[in-house]
Here is the input.
Amino acid sequence: MKKNILLTIAILLILSPYSFSSNDSEHRLKMDYKASVGSVDPNGKIIKVNVNGLVCDFCARALEKVFMKEKSVSGLTVDLKAKEIKIYTKKNMNLEDNIIEKKIKDSGYIVSSIERL
Here is the structure.
């Protein structure tokens, strides 16, 4: 019985690094993910936000859900390779920097810059 337990522990210890490394490479493969949701209002504003911590399509989907709930947002583009999101606002509507920062921080990411185009 003890031999079986020790053998199981040894196998798990040997295979653990492999499972971590394969997950990491899977994340790297998805780094070139780029997606858009919603639409671009030609009369609205474009807000470019550089975000640290975006690594996979799940990160992008989380931010899409958060920002598309805002009344002032007409669309959103997430570019994982550039680590940026572009927020498209509706005509005559705005989204304040502090709200953008809070939503991104609450989602688990860090804002490095906000630029209004």
Summary: Helices lie at 2-29, 57-68, 97-106. The longest strand covers residues 46-52. Residues 2-29 form the longest helix (28 residues). The radius of gyration is 20 Å.
